[in-house]
Amino acid sequence: MHKRMVYWLKQIVQTVIILAVVAVAVDWWRQPVQPVGFTQTPWQTLQGERWTLAEFSSNRPVVVYFWGSWCGICRYTSPVVEKLHQAGVPVMGVALRSGSADEVAAYMRGHDYDFDTLNDADGKIAAQWQVAVTPTIAVIKNGNMVHHTTGLSSYWGLRSRIWLADWLY
Q: Of 12, 72, 93, 125, which is most buried, counting CB atoms within 10 Å of its CB?
């Protein structure tokens, strides 16, 4: 019985390590690229706020969340991002090819999302960042991308990345 438990424990540990390595490799392969000068570009959100990423991320980590109303995984990630926003984490959403500003605003109201959002109706912002998949999440501090991830993300996974970004950078 003891040998069998040790065998299965080893199998579980090996599987977790392999999955972690694969997840890191996939994130590295699909990483966004922060465009030169983007931090100084002035933007206006659907909520009417005007800012630059340099100002928004000054001395604090900010989540930049590329998402789409049509994205299946975003239906699970967007509530997590909203929860971060409700907890006081600065979030800037980029609604990728999700319709007009009015359509995106209506979608957000319908889902009770309140985080600041830019409408990227034609995909130009996402193209500048070389976003390959949605959702893509970048953590920015002092105008520089310090972390990124793609796909499904948990609240505590993102929260730990934000904490590390705040502590290390």
A: 93
